[in-house]
Design a protein that fits this description.
Blueprint: H1 2-20, E1 86-90, E2 93-97, E3 110-111, E4 114-115, H2 119-132, E5 136-140, H3 145-151, E6 167-172, H4 179-192, H5 194-197, E7 206-207, E8 220-221, E9 225-230, E10 246-251, E11 253-254, E12 259-260, H6 265-269
Antiparallel strand pairs: 1-2, 3-4, 5-6, 6-10, 7-8, 8-9, 9-10, 11-12
Helix pairs in contact: 2-4
The protein binds zinc ion (ZN).
């Protein structure tokens, strides 16, 4: 009995002693800092998390299909310094073409000190995406001069409007084999939009009859754009290595400035930031 009382008093003493005086560090302290609990400390109550729907970004609003709206970001140069050097033999001389570093190394073309892609291209691609409910895949938007030469160094491509932000290559996912339907939508856009159909300059599309050895399909054109259809084995370059037919839209006329869109060395080589 005496032993039990002694043990109890020893335990009480230890407990009370532990509360009234700060404990001394153990003789063989573990590595790291010793943490002491304060007497007024309370456990933090964490509110249970409830899922919430975030607010829409502007480009998602009023969106009728599940795909993000096409913006000028979709047009950034597809160049990459990881792409292999492209060798070309010309006049018994081997020419080497290196790709650019891509959009991490340079901007889009500029207008009024802002990155600029001709808005009609963005509007048309969004129209196609909304009407079809399918994703538009931009394979080639802006090409800086290095990337343009890397894709195709032939003289015919040296004045490419891809360098001005005035040309785009694309196909529609899920409609890869129906490019004619997509082109019909582009033609329909001009008949629908009041800006065009009520304009005195409105004209129906015509077919470009001049022979082009690289194309089996006659291109379409009106005052503002020029539309080409590249079939499965046509127009294959490094950006268009996919196996599908694709459509190219080129801007001929700047509706906003009321002037033709023409290539110039300054616009292609000097009108973007390099970083
Ligand atoms: Zn580039």
């Amino acid at each position: 009995m005496k032993k039990v009382t002694y043990a109890l008093s020893l335990l009480m003493g230890l407990l009370l002693g532990g509360c009234s005086s700060s404990p001394s560090p153990p003789s063989n302290p573990p590595k790291g800092e010793y943490l002491f609990r304060r007497h007024d400390e309370q456990l933090v109550q964490i509110e249970p998390m409830t899922p919430f729907k975030r607010a829409s970004y502007p480009w998602e609003e009023d969106w009728q299909c599940n795909y993000p709206k096409i913006t000028k970001d979709f047009f950034r140069c597809q160049g990459s310094s990881l792409n292999p050097v492209h060798l070309m033999e010309k006049n018994k001389e081997v020419l080497r073409f290196y790709d650019c570093g891509g959009s991490q190394k340079h901007s889009l073309p500029l207008r009024d000190q802002k990155e600029f892609i001709y808005p009609i291209l963005i509007d048309l691609l969004n129209y196609v995406q909304t009407k079809t409910g399918k994703r538009v895949v931009v394979t080639c938007g802006h090409c800086c001069p290095d990337h343009n030469a890397y894709l195709d160094s032939s003289p015919a491509n040296q004045a490419s409007k891809h360098m001005l932000g005035a040309e785009v290559d694309f196909y529609v996912q899920g409609m890869e084999q129906q490019p004619s339907e997509v082109i019909n939508l582009i033609l329909a856009y001009y008949r629908e939009q009041p800006k065009y159909k009520e304009s005195k300059d409105f004209e129906e599309f015509k077919r470009y009859e001049k022979e082009d050895k690289n194309l089996r399909t006659l291109p379409w054109y009106n005052k503002e754009i020029f539309v080409k259809l590249f079939r499965k084995e046509e127009g294959r370059d490094f950006d268009n290595r996919h196996p599908y037919p694709y459509i190219s839209i080129q801007v001929r006329y700047d509706w906003e400035r009321d002037e033709p869109v023409t290539y110039s060395w300054d616009k292609a080589f000097r009108n973007f930031h390099r970083w």
